[in-house]
Amino acid sequence: MNHMQEQNWKDECGITSSSFLHQIGPGKGPMTIMALPKIARDELGMRILDINTNSLGSIEPDHAERLRAEVDRTGCIVTNIKLNQRDIDMNHADPAERERALAVYRKSVDAAAILGARWVRPLPPDEKPDMQIHIDGYRALADYAATNDIQVIVEEYGW
Q1: So what's the pLDDT on residue 12?
Q2: DSSP string over 100-128
Q3: pLDDT digits (tens, 9 = 90+) for 30-55
Q4: Which of 47, 54, 71, 102 is spaced 20 to 30 A from 133 at the CA atom?
Q5: What is the pTM of this model?
Q6: Which H, E and C letters describe 129-150, residue by residue?
Q7: How many Cβ atoms from other residues are within 10 Å of residue 17's Cβ?
Q8: What is the phi/psi pair of residue 5, to 5°?
Q9: Taking CA 25 as the corner, what is the angle to CA 100 and CA 129, rounded to the nearest 5 degrees?
Q10: Are residues 130 and 92 in contact, defined by beta-carbon separation less than 8 angstroms?
């Protein structure tokens, strides 16, 4: 059972780590992702966190476990992980590149599961993809995510 099921959060708002895009991350500023739960809770009065992989720092299990401990310690929850890895493409014409992207996304789903997230959202391509490849990629990711009780969000990018 994840945090969203344990408590009623319907009347609360949260914050996305992208709001701190210029402050979080290696070489970006004085803040770390580990500080976000405490800042959100103590300074902003928020408990709901939406995290982008570009501010997460790592999708390695030990990193996710440390962040989960901080999230739990502060009474926060992680609802969503936006998979913003720009160097992969699950819509690529080359099947090997698509599989490489799905491997990274699966590892990201594993990190999201450790963090207690309910949803993940892969980064949509800038250009309209081959829709069959796109749908197949989403289905493969959704099937994997479901094994972790996580749903995949589809974000439409205007194409």
Answers
A1: 80
A2: HHHHHHHHHHHHHHHHT-SEEEEPPPSSP
A3: 788 999 999 999 999 999 999 999 88
A4: 54
A5: 0.89
A6: CCHHHHHHHHHHHHHHHHCCCC
A7: 25
A8: -80, -25
A9: 35
A10: no
